[in-house]
Every structure is written in C-alpha cells, then in structure tokens.
Design goal:
Blueprint: H1 2-7, H2 12-43, H3 50-59, H4 66-76, E1 116-124, E2 131-138, E3 144-150, H5 155-169, E4 176-179, H6 183-186, H7 188-196, E5 200-203, H8 213-227, H9 236-251, H10 265-276
Parallel strand pairs: 1-4, 4-5
Antiparallel strand pairs: 1-2, 2-3
Helix pairs in contact: 2-3, 3-4
C-alpha cells in the first residue's frame, strides 16, 4: 500500500479517505437503486420481473444490468407472479353455424392500428359464481380495444365486447376480425354486426389454438398477473372493478410490452398517430 501511495504521490490518509468516500457513494447508489426497484415492483402490481424493471430504470437514466436488478429483488424477497396451470373450455365449436375462412393465416403482424383484431373468451373464477371475459385485441398496438365480463357465455357477451371496440376506435372498412369457431362468434347476430361494421370475418382452423395465439397469450398474462397470483374474487362486483382497473388503467395505459419497444399500448398508439400527423 505504501509503495502504491508513493507511486501515485498520495498520502496513506488521503487514500483511505478516498476509499471510504467511494464506499459511501456506492452504498448510497445501492440504497437509491434498491428503492427504485422496490417502487417499480409494487407500481406494476407485483407483476414485473428483473427484465422489465431494468427497462424502467434505464428510462430513468440508470446504468444497471438485469443481473443486478435480479440480485436486489432476491435480497428484498420480491418475486413476480407465477401462473397456475388451469383451463376451462370456453369454445363451443359443436354447431352447424357457418364458419368463416381463416383469412388471418397466423399472420399476426400489422402495419397500423385497427387493421387486425383478434377475439376470444376466457373463464374468470369467482367465489360468487362463474364469470366469462370476452376480449378483443388490436394486433398492432396490443391494446385491448373491447371487453365484456358476464356470468353467461352467450352471444350478448361477445357482441357487447365488439360494440365497445367499434365505439371506441371507429375502424375503417376492411378490418380483419379473427376469432375461434365458437358459437358466440359464428352466431347470426354476430356475423350480421361484423357485416354492418364492414369487418372481414376470419376464424381459426378446427382444433388449432395457434391460429389465435396472440389473444390466448394475452389471457395467459391476465391470469398470471391478476387472477391466479391474487386471492380469488369474492364477488362479481369485485371482479368487474378489478378487471376494469387492470385492463383500462394498467394493461392498456401503463404496462410495458416487449413486442412494441417496452411501451404501453396506448403510448405506442399515440406515437403512431403523432408520427403520421
């Protein structure tokens, strides 16, 4: 140590003072970083893991690795929610209703908002009784443009979600609307509404879940982040309120999506229209 101090022409006391100062700065940085990791974890409703939290920190100007964020989360005992394997059949394809051709053909790319929508129904567990959620997702923005929660898996469930989406977005003629072959989507009233809205119907092939993979993936995220990582909804009213909060305020407006540059769907849509103006 004395030789090093001599080479760099510094006193031993000066060196130790500098060393203590460096250690203090590192400790301060670690403490501040730890608080930001904690904040982003709980701000995301305990859904973000180290990759997404690191992305949020980079946006704030931090230079930090995913590994460091992961170590801090481990120290704090923070763990993003995990999914349970549970599935309830929501597709009734045993019917004699007309089936639309598979126009989408697993081409999940889109060049603009309201070009391609995908729709599906999923089961929502609730202590007060079964619930079903019909969702419609825009393949370009990844936004949930329409949804409806009901205790009955009827044509009204899917129609209400479709009407909500149309009222919100007013899509141009020719939008591709893709769904599975369920009776709720093949029903006469639903097909007539698609025709009134000048949408082009598309349906998955029989028994091929990959044809509607994007909306299936969204429902998996929903189950992982909201349904199975939290206590089961006690009432249908509670389920409605929490789904509204998750879909409209967290998923659409806040949650970062890796497929659109770690932006929220609403932000991604805003940037599209701003650049097109």
């Amino acid at each position: 140590m004395e030789k090093m101090c001599g080479v760099f022409q510094v006193s031993r006391s000066g060196y130790y003072k500098w060393q203590a100062s460096e250690a203090s700065e590192r400790a301060k940085r670690k403490a501040t970083l730890t608080e930001r990791v904690r904040w982003h974890f709980y701000d995301s409703e305990e859904t973000y893991g180290s990759p997404r939290i690191r992305r949020e920190l980079v946006k704030e100007g931090w230079t930090v690795s995913e590994r460091t964020v992961g170590l801090i989360m481990r120290e704090l005992g923070l763990r993003s929610c995990m999914a349970r394997k549970f599935r309830v059949a929501t597709t009734d394809s045993k019917h004699d209703l007309p089936i639309a051709p598979n126009v989408l053909q697993q081409d999940f790319t889109a060049t603009k908002p309201n070009e391609k929508w995908v729709a599906d129904i999923t089961y929502i567990p609730c202590r007060q009784g079964k619930l079903y959620l019909a969702s419609i997702l825009d393949l370009y923005t990844k936004q949930i443009v329409g949804w409806k929660l009901s205790d009955r898996m009827t044509i009204d469930l899917t129609l209400d979600a479709l009407n909500m989406a149309y009222a919100a977005k007013k899509p141009p003629k020719g939008l591709i609307h893709h769904s599975d072959r369920g009776s709720q989507y093949a029903a006469k009233d639903y097909r007539a509404q698609l025709e009134r809205y000048k949408m082009k119907p598309s349906m998955s092939r029989k028994g091929n879940c990959y044809d509607n993979a994007c909306i299936e993936a969204f429902h998996s995220i929903l189950k992982r982040e909201l349904i199975y990582s939290k206590p089961k909804f006690k009432t249908k009213e509670e389920a409605q309120q929490k789904l509204y909060r998750y879909l409209e305020f967290f998923y659409n407006r806040k949650r970062s999506n890796s497929t659109i540059g770690y932006m929220s769907p609403v932000r991604f849509e805003q940037l599209y229209y701003a650049s097109a103006a």
